[in-house]
């Protein structure tokens, strides 16, 4: 019985971690605002500018990162497998290139903090003053 309680407790902790909030981040000097439609357009290669007309450089976390899974399903409304197939088709036909990938939150923050055109996402718990949050999911 104690084993069962321990397993249930562990599952609750893991499910809580899986549901952690993510923050969409930009360079601190970037005053842009974004909504889910903007993010879909940018991260699916259907546009290359923010709503204010300035160039946007979307950045992804590496596959397998929890924040990436959350972003893909909650923001882009697609599974990782669907996105992989989507980008494979675009790359094969020469119609697009997926966003560059960064291995972890620290690398993503460093990339966004050093590029005023960058937009990425990390777990909200990883946000600090080197980046500006423009949306949370």
From TrEMBL:
Q: Which UniProt keywords apply?
A: Signal
- Lineage, top-rank taxon, reads Bacteria
Enumerate the Gene3D superfamilies for this protein.
Answer: Periplasmic binding protein-like II
Where does the signal sequence lie?
1-20
Name of the molecule in the record: Phosphate ABC transporter substrate-binding protein
Organism classification: Bacteria, Pseudomonadati, Pseudomonadota, Gammaproteobacteria, Alkalimonas
